[in-house]
Design goal:
Largest interface: A-B, 60 and 63 residues
Distance between the termini of chain B: 34 Å
Number of helices of chain A: 18
Number of domains of chain A: 4
Order of helices and strands of chain B: HHEHEHEHHEHEHEHHEEHH
CATH topology of chain B: Rossmann fold
CATH superfamily of chain B: Thiamin diphosphate (ThDP)-binding fold, Pyr/PP domains
CATH class of the largest domain in chain A: Alpha Beta
Shape of chain A: globular
Strand content of chain A: 15-25%
Radius of gyration of chain A: 28 Å
Bound molecules: flavin-adenine dinucleotide, thiamine diphosphate, iron/sulfur cluster
CATH topology of the largest domain in chain A: FAD/NAD(P)-binding domain
Oligomer: heterodimer
Strand content of chain B: 5-15%
Largest sheet of chain A: 5 strands, parallel
Number of helices of chain B: 12
Chain lengths: 560, 340
Amino acid sequence: MKQYPRGGIAEPGASLDYHTGSWRLQRPVHVHQAAPCHHACPAGEDAQAYLALVEQGRMQAAWESLVTANPLPAITGRVCPHPCESACNRGQYDEAVSIHGIERFLGDEAIRQGWAYPVAPPPADAPVVAVVGAGPAGLSCAWHLLRAGLRVDVFEAESEPGGICATAIPGYRLPPDTVALECGRLMALDGIEFRPGQRLGRDIQLHELRQQYAAVFLGVGAQQARPWSIDGVTPGDLHDGLALLQEWKRVGQIPVPERVAVVGGGNTAVDLCRVFKRAGAKRVMLVTHSGMPGPGVPDPMRALPRELAQAQEEGVEVLTHRGVRRLVLRGEKAVGIETVHMKKLPDAEGRLRRVAFEGTESLLHVDMIVPATGQDVDGRGFEELLKGSAALAIAADGAIGTPGVYAGGDVTGNAGTVTAAVGQGRRAAAAIVRSLQREAGIDWTDAAPVAFAALNTEYYEPMRRHHGAVLPPAEREGELEVEQGFDPAAAQAEAGRCLSCGNCMACDNCYTLCPDTAVLKTRDLAEDGSHYVFDYEYCKGCGLCANECPTGYIQMVVEP
Amino acid sequence: MSTITNAGAPTRADGTISLTELREQQPRFQGFVGGHRACVGCGQALAARLVTEAAGPDVAVANATGCLEVFSTAWPDSAWRVPWLHSLFENAGAIASGMEAAYKARGVSAKVLAFAGDGGTFDIGFQSLSGMIERNHNVLYVCYDNEAYMNTGIQRSSSTPHAAATTTSPAGRERLGKRHMKKDILQIVAAHHMPYAATASVAYPSDLRKKVRRAMEIEGTTFLLVHSPCPLGWRHDGAKSVEVARLAVTTGLVPIIELERGSLTGSMPIREPRPVVDYLRAQGRFEHLFVDTPAAREELEHIQALANYNMERYQLRGSGHDARDTAGADTVRRGGVRWA
Ligand SMILES: Cc1cc2nc3c(=O)[nH]c(=O)nc-3n(C[C@H](O)[C@H](O)[C@H](O)COP(=O)(O)OP(=O)(O)OC[C@H]3O[C@@H](n4cnc5c(N)ncnc54)[C@H](O)[C@@H]3O)c2cc1C
Ligand SMILES: Cc1ncc(C[n+]2csc(CCOP(=O)(O)OP(=O)(O)O)c2C)c(N)n1
Ligand code: SF4
Ligand code: SF4
Ligand code: SF4
Ligand code: SF4
C-alpha cells in the first residue's frame, strides 16, 4: 500500500491515480462519416480525402487517392455536372468548394508530370475479362479490374479510347489532348490490352467473348441517332446533332447555315449551338420544351447551367418552353419552322403533360434544323441481350441477368453523364471481381452523409471560392479552351476551404479543450485513423469535445 | 488496453505505447492533469489547464479556497504538476505576495501565480489582492469567474450578473434573480495603475494563451479575469460550456479587453453580435426571464441594454473581417495551427 505523508502534501499529478472515467454515462468516439460530396459523387469519389492532401501540398498523393475511385479526373474535372458541389456542406456556409476545379488540377498535373497510376501489374495467370467499348464506363471498369489484380482486354470500334469524350464533346471545353493523354495512359498500363478497331457484332462476337473470357463488360454507350420527324415530315437534308459534333471534331468543319435551329435541351444541343457559332453561323437558336435551369424551375434543361450561360454569352439564342409545330419546307429543304409556346402543366389527375398555348405560334426562318434530342443504343452485336428493349437493364451491381455479362454507362439507359458511367463501370468491376471469388477492395458508401448541422461552423472562416480564368466571349475562337484551370497555389488554397466534413482535420480542438486532459495527441496516427486518442481512464463523458469538434468526427455514445 | 502505433517513442516491443506513457510525451506542457474531481464539463478546470499550459513549468501557485482548490486536491491526490499552495478563501493575494518575497530572498527565478474564484477575488479576497497590486509583487493573479460561490452551493457574489438566479438570489414573485449589477472588477483592479489587466474566456484559448504569456513577461503584478462557465451553477449541459462562454462574448455581455496602466489597449471586436437572449436561453439560471410577463420582458431588454452599453463603451462592434475578432480568433486549421 502506498504511504502518504501526514498533512496536506501530495505528489505532483497524483490525481491520475484516481480514474474519473468511472463517472461516465456516455463516451466520445471517433466516427468517420461520409461527407456529402462523397455521397453525391456518382463515381464514388471521396473528395474530402484528396482535398485534405491537396491542402497539405501533397498533390501526387491526392491524385493517387482520387484515382482509387475515378481514373479520369482531367476529363470529369471539366465535364462533370459536379453534383458533389451541389451537395457540399460549405454551400450552406458561404460557397461550395470548387471540387471539380481541384479534380481537374490533379488530373492535369498527373498528365503533365507523368505520375504513374498506383497499380501493380497483375500476375501472368490472372483471369482475363473482356471490356467492350472504351468510353468512360469501359475505361473505369478496366481500371478497377486491373486494380483488383485481373487482366483486361478492351475492344473498341474506334481507333482511340475515350468514347463520346474523344469523339463528340467539343475541344473548347474538353481539349482532345487531355482525353488522348488521360485515356491513353490508362490503356498503356501493364495488364490492359487495348484492341482498337474491333466492333462487337462485326469483328468479334458476343458468344466468343463469353467463351474466352472470365467475364464480359459491355460499355458501348448510346450513339445512334434517334429517328425524328414532325408529323411524319423530315427535311431531305436532315443532319443528326451527334453526327455533326463528331464531324466537327474529326474533320474540323461542318456545313454552316446562315440561320439554324437546334432542337433539344441537353449537352448535345448546347454544344452544337456553340459549334455552329464558332463555325460562322449568323443566327443560332436553341429550341427546347424545357425551362432555364434555376431555383424552383420544375422542368430545367438537362444541359449544365454554366454551359448554357457561356452559350448565351457567345450569342446563342435560347428559346425555352417552345415546341416545333410544323416544318416549313421548300421542296425537300427546310426554310423555316413554326414554333409554339408550351409548358408542362398538371392535368385533372395531377399528371404533368405539355400544353401548347394557342395564339403563340410564330415562324422562324432557318436554313437548317437539327434535332439533338438524344441518342439510342445501337444494339447490333448483342441483340439477344436487349431482347427488344431500348437499353440494357442492370441491377445495382451492373449484372444484366445473363451469367458472366455486365454492363454500365449509357448502354444501360440510366447513366447520362461521364461520371455516372465511371461509377457504373466501377460497380460492375466490383461485381465481376466478387463473382470470381476475389476480394474486390472497392468500397462504396451508401450511408447517410454528415449533415451541415453536425458541424461546428464557429471554427471556420468565410472565404470566397476560387475560380479559374474564363476566356472572354470575344476571344473564344475555334477549339480554344474556355475555362482555365487552377495553378497550384489556387488549388491548395481552394482545398483549404474544405470543412473536412465527417473526418478529423487534426485541428487540436478536442485536445485543447478537454477539461480533464482526456484527449491525448499521438505524434503520428492513432489506431482509428485520427491523430488523437481518448483516455477513458479520465474522460468523464461531458461531450464538450464532441460539441466543439468542427468536423462532426466525434460522437457521444451510451457507455457500454 | 488500446494500442497506439507510430507514436513518438514506442515503449513496447511491438512498437506501441501505453496511454500512461503517451501522456508523458504530449507536445504541450501539462501543469494541470486529469483525475481531478471537477463536475462534468467544468469551465474552471478547462481554464486551469489552459493557463498552466501557457505559463509553463517555472511557476508556483497560490490557490484560494473554492471549487478549483477543492476539486484539484482531494487528499492524497493533486492534479497539479507545479508547486502549489492552498491559501485561505480570503488571502490568495497575501500568500502569493509572501511566496514571491520568499523566492526573491532565495534568489529563485519563478513566477508566482495566484488563482481564485470570483468570490475569492471580487468579495472576500479583495483587500489582500489590492495590497498585493499596490506593492507591485511579481505575481500573475488569475480569477476564474464563474459568477457565484459555487463550491458552497451557488450563492450570489458581487460578480453574479444582474438577473441571474442563485440560491441566495432566487427568482420568485418579488425578484427575478439578482437585483444588483455585476461588479466591474477589471476597472477597479486597473485603477491601481497596474501594468496589465485583461479579460479572457475559455472559448478563446489562443487569446487566453497570448494574454498569459504577455502577463508572464511583465515584471510586476498582472491580472487576468477568465470567464469560466459552471454547468452546475449556470444550469447548462456540460457539453455546452465552451458554447455558452462563446455566446457571453459574442453578445457583448463579457467584453474581452486589455487595460495597461488603466487605459484600454486592446479589445476583441465582435464580428456578428448576437442577441443576449441567445446566451440567456442557454442557461437555467436565466430561465425565469423566459416567461411572458412585463417584468421578464423588461429584464431581457435591460440585459440587452447592458450588452449594448459594453459594446459602446469598448467599441466592440467589429467593422468587417478581422483575424482577431470573435469569428477569427478561434479559427482552426488542419494540423492544429492556431495563432497562439
Ligand atoms: C455532345 C455530348 C456532350 C456531352 N457532354 C457531357 C458533359 O458535359 N458532361 C457529362 O457528364 N456527360 C456529357 N455527355 C454524356 C456522356 O458523354 C456520356 O454519358 C458518357 O460518355 C457515357 O459513357 P459510356 O462509356 O457509357 O459511352 P460512350 O462514351 O458512348 O462510349 C462507348 C464506346 O463504345 C464504343 N462502341 C460502341 N459500340 C461498340 C461496339 N459494338 N463494339 C465495340 N465498341 C463499341 C464506342 O466507340 C465508344 O468508344 C455528353 C454527351 C454528348 C453526346
Ligand atoms: C472565510 C471563509 N468563509 C467561507 C468559506 C467557505 N467557502 C469555501 S469556498 C467558498 C466559495 C468560493 O466561491 P468562489 O471564490 O466564487 O469560487 P468557486 O467555488 O465558485 O470556484 C466559500 C464561501 C471559507 N472557506 N472561508
Ligand atoms: S466526378 Fe463529379 S461529382 Fe465526383 S467529385 Fe468530380 S466533379 Fe464532383
Ligand atoms: S466541405 Fe469538403 S468535405 Fe464537406 S462536402 Fe464540401 S468538399 Fe466535401
Ligand atoms: S471533453 Fe474530455 S471529458 Fe469531456 S467527453 Fe471529451 S474527452 Fe471526455
Ligand atoms: S476536434 Fe479537431 S482534432 Fe479533434 S476530432 Fe474533431 S477535427 Fe479532429
